Amino acid sequence: MFRAIADVLRQIGGALATVVTLPFRAVARLFGGASSSTRGRA
Fold first, then answer.
1. pTM higher than 0.70, yes or no?
2. Band of the pLDDT at 34, cuts 50, 70, 90?
3. What whole-number distance in Å separates Cα of residue 19 and Cα of residue 3?
4. pLDDT tens by residue, 2-20
5. What is the full DSSP assignment across 19-40?
6. How far apart are the first and last CA of the chain?
7. CA dihedral 26, 31, 32, 37 (to 10 degrees)
């Protein structure tokens, strides 16, 4: 019983982690691309 509850909580935590980190990854990719492109121009 407790193991099943722990598994469900773990799955919910994993889904929350991906949802929370996805926007930050997108922003990091945007800033990373901008910084690399400006470096190439200079």
1. no
2. confident
3. 24
4. 999 999 999 999 999 999 9
5. HHHHHHHHHHHHHHHHHHHHHH
6. 61
7. 130
pLDDT at residue 42, rounded to an integer: 55
Tokens of 19: 């949802």
Separation CA 28–CA 42 (nearest Å): 21
d(CA 22, CA 26): 6
Q: What is the mean pLDDT of the chain?
A: 87
Spatial neighbors of 5 by CB under 8 A, at least 6 apart, are: none
